[in-house]
Amino acid sequence: MELAADSLSNRPTPPWLWRLIATGLSFALFGLGGLCLRVVVFPLLALLPGDAIAHRGRARKTVSRLFWLFVQFMYRSGVLTYEVQGAERLGRPGQLVIANHPSLIDVVVLIAQIRDANCVVKQSLWENPFTRGPIRAAQYISNNGSAEMLDEAAEALQQGQTLIIFPEGTRTTPGQAPQFHRGAASIALRGARLVTPVVITVSPTTLTKAEPWYRIPARRFHFHLRVGEDIDPQVFAARGAAPIASRRLNDHLHRHFIKELALDEPTTA
């Protein structure tokens, strides 16, 4: 299944000034939306009946739906076009979704595709007044680098949750290949039923590491998300001790992403 929103791609790119204004409005909307969720929406959802798991599910589905609407706003306002391939294979029980991280909105687009997803997020987002409300209500996992984080992530998978991880830990430096930490592979071996790689490309590059939001590209950027074939982590677990299996799985994932990203590189005549 392929979901595309690039019907405007053959039309002229909106003027630079308009896209700058629309980008600023997008960031303002995101921040105000986070505060509104924290102050109004999630307190109201907490009044609904149900146990802790039901409340967590409502919060995650709310975040997913609002992220989808946010992507639609960026698309309709002319900031971006997007294409998603294989989204129907996301969101399965015990699935570890591993993605590269080229831009600031990767997690937004990815969570928008999965109605009830857990996610490992940077510790700084837990303290950010605009994001900590949704993150805590959805019970996402803090990437604080501790052994407890690895335990929590593996346990979430064992419980049948879908978990999203960006093994780089931060956005990819433009022009460089992604570098994966072995934490994701270790979590996969300890708790995942299956591992699904998701390759993300953004063309032209924008919202990269250390790049301010107002430095927008010369044309509207295209966001492409492609879901790869599933990987059985037990194939690697059976090949040796945990540290060796973790290294082999991490190397396998790294080679997969390098190969897939090379397919998306523009060719010159």
Automatic annotation (TrEMBL):
Pathway entry = Lipid metabolism
Signal peptide location = none
Q: Where does the Phospholipid/glycerol acyltransferase domain start and stop, copy by copy? A: 95-203
Q: Does the keyword Acyltransferase apply?
A: yes
Q: What is this protein called?
A: 1-acyl-sn-glycerol-3-phosphate acyltransferase
InterPro entries recorded: Plipid/glycerol_acylTrfase (IPR002123)
Q: Does the keyword Acyltransferase apply?
A: yes
Q: What UniProt keywords apply to this chain's record, in alphabetical order?
A: Acyltransferase, Membrane, Transferase, Transmembrane, Transmembrane helix
Any single GO molecular-function term of the entry would be:
1-acylglycerol-3-phosphate O-acyltransferase activity
Segments spanning the bilayer are 20-48
Q: Which GO terms describe its biological process?
A: phosphatidic acid biosynthetic process
Cross-referenced SMART domains: PlsC (SM00563)
